[in-house]
């Protein structure tokens, strides 16, 4: 299957979806299910104080989801223990206190927070991340966000939720398909492709205010936006000059600069921290990943495993490139280590698509065409976002600045 036929099959499918003849069921998510692997025993006691949010359960779920901890009930022998309380008081509504201790009784953390009632769950995520970082030396993910697209009744919804899938908020409802989401480096904006007006256009939307701006509506394909590390430029695919090519746009100028040229299909650009761009091209006869410098120029081929590697995603440090890899008619999520060129298939395969790295670079979220999943870069931890309904194009937000 050529990249060109794949691109146009997707376009045709999107137009069919735009007729409203396809609908998605209501979305529900329980990310605590389907986690593989064991971890360090940690006892988590219920928080006293009578707060309406079960903070201990949220912490336990967050830590279990990492695959590195095995939460236990109080009284069970464990390497670490967590205790705390959430009581009315303070200047904002609730005082939340917690303590992390080692098995020998040594106190490792003892902190308190003054929060309003609607911040009890976020502060539980914050506590989870503090515990995770204290015990692993790595930044946690519990307090981060994800975005994805779902649809129902002929409408498409752009949704932002907590990393555990809870607290979903619809930030856009559209009568036409939405796809190819990309977070800005500061987490304040989302770029995506919208088919409003029954033609593709690239839109940038402020996540918290809802303000939207069309940044490209050129004739033909407008696809696959990706943010530059400085948040001031986008790379995307245009076919306005005849063939799908990679372009770069300074958001202050509105004049896209062409970066690739030739008879091949060049699409799905992703910026690396050094300013170079990884993209998908069939210039070698089948879809593979290539890299060009910030200003374009000669392309270096990156992937050689199999006859299909597409949809690249870069880890925040640029070390890993995740992708959709096809073999035996099945689509998998795979990862390439840019340091040692090791290529690893991470998933069991099927219709896996749309990989996106977590901001700590340790996990990759993706869709299998019906639900969301996540897998560790080394394959050691797998998460299943248990849901009813179809969810597509997941992207993990960067850490808040």
Describe this protein with a few key phrases.
mainly beta; 5-stranded antiparallel sheet; 401 residues; globular
Q: Total helix count? A: 3
Count all strands and give the number.
Answer: 30
How big is the Rg? 22 Å
Query: How would the global form be characterised?
Result: globular
Quote the distance from N terminus to C terminus: 42 Å
Whole-number mean pLDDT: 89
Stretches where pLDDT is under 50 for at least 5 consecutive residues are 4-34
Strand ordering within the main sheet: 1-29-28-27-26
Helix content: 10-25%
Structural class: mainly beta
Beta-strand share of residues: over 45%
- Give the biggest sheet: 5 strands, antiparallel
List the helices and strands and how they pair.
Layout: H1 3-17, E1 28-30, E2 40-44, H2 55-65, E3 69-72, E4 80-89, E5 93-102, E6 107-115, H3 120-136, E7 145-152, E8 155-162, E9 169-174, E10 178-183, E11 189-194, E12 201-206, E13 212-216, E14 222-227, E15 233-238, E16 245-250, E17 257-258, E18 266-271, E19 277-281, E20 288-293, E21 296-301, E22 309-314, E23 320-327, E24 330-337, E25 343-345, E26 353-357, E27 363-367, E28 372-376, E29 382-388, E30 391-396
Helix pairs in contact: 2-3
């Amino acid at each position: 299957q050529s990249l060109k036929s794949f691109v146009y099959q997707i376009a045709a499918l999107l137009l069919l979806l735009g007729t409203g003849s396809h609908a998605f069921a209501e979305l529900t998510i329980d990310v605590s299910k389907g986690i593989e692997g064991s971890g360090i025993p940690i006892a988590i006691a219920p928080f006293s104080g009578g707060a309406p949010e079960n903070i201990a359960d949220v912490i336990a779920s967050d830590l279990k989801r990492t695959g590195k901890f095995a939460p236990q009930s109080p009284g069970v022998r464990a390497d670490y223990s967590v205790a705390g309380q959430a009581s009315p008081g303070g200047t904002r509504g609730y005082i939340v206190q917690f303590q992390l201790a080692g098995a020998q009784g040594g106190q490792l953390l003892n902190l308190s927070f003054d929060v309003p009632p609607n911040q009890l769950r976020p502060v539980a995520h914050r506590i989870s991340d503090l515990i995770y970082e204290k015990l692993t030396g790595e930044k946690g993910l519990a307090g981060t966000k994800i975005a994805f697209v779902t649809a129902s009744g002929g409408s498409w919804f752009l949704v932002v939720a907590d990393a555990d899938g809870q607290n979903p908020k619809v930030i856009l409802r559209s009568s036409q398909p939405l796809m190819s989401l990309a977070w800005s480096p500061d987490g304040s904006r989302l770029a995506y492709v919208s088919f409003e007006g029954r033609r593709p256009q690239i839109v940038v939307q402020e996540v918290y205010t809802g303000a939207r701006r069309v940044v490209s509506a050129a004739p033909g394909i407008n696809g696959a936006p990706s943010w530059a590390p400085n948040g001031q430029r986008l790379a995307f695919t245009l076919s306005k000059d005849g063939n799908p090519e990679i372009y770069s746009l300074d958001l202050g100028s509105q004049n896209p600069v062409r970066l690739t040229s030739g008879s091949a299909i060049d699409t799905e650009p992703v910026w690396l921290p050094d300013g170079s761009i990884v993209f998908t091209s069939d210039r070698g006869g089948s879809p593979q990943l290539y890299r060009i410098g910030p200003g374009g120029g000669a392309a270096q081929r990156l992937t050689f495993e199999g006859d299909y590697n597409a949809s690249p995603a870069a880890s925040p440090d640029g070390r890993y490139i995740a992708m959709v890899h096809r073999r035996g008619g099945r689509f998998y999520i795979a990862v390439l280590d840019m340091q040692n060129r090791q290529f690893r298939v991470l998933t069991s395969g099927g219709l896996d698509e749309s990989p996106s790295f977590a901001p700590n670079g340790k996990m990759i979220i993706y869709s299998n065409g019906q639900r969301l999943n996540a897998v560790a870069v080394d394959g050691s931890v797998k998460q299943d976002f248990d849901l009813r309904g179809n969810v597509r194009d997941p992207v993990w937000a960067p850490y808040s600045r």
